[in-house]
Design goal:
about 100 residues; mainly alpha; 2 helices; about 0% strand; rod-shaped
């Protein structure tokens, strides 16, 4: 929620100007206020690390299962688990960049 620098009132982020005094926002419509705490950012970084490690371990486990002869389990790990974990890691990466 942007706050007008002239009159000090908050207004809806969809508006480009303050409804009270009419001043155009200095940061534009793309500005969003801080909505996270430092602990939340740190927690997101840990979740991102765990998602990437899970992806690496899942690929390794799938290849290991295929090599040792458990073909069905290895293929399930590679073709079901890997896209899921990759998508989770990409989402966490995208959210982490926006903070």
């Amino acid at each position: 929620m942007p706050i007008c620098s002239r009159c000090g009132n908050g207004y809806d982020s969809g508006l480009l100007s303050c409804p009270n005094c009419g001043r155009v926002g200095s940061r534009g419509a793309s500005f969003f206020g801080a909505r996270h705490a430092p602990i939340a950012r740190f927690s997101l970084q840990i979740a991102l690390l765990i998602a990437w490690l899970g992806l690496v371990f899942n690929v390794g486990a799938g290849i290991y299962c295929i090599v040792t002869g458990d073909l069905v389990t290895g293929l399930i790990a590679l073709f079901v688990g890997t896209p899921y974990l990759y998508a989770q890691a990409v989402v966490f990466s995208h959210v982490s960049e926006r903070l």
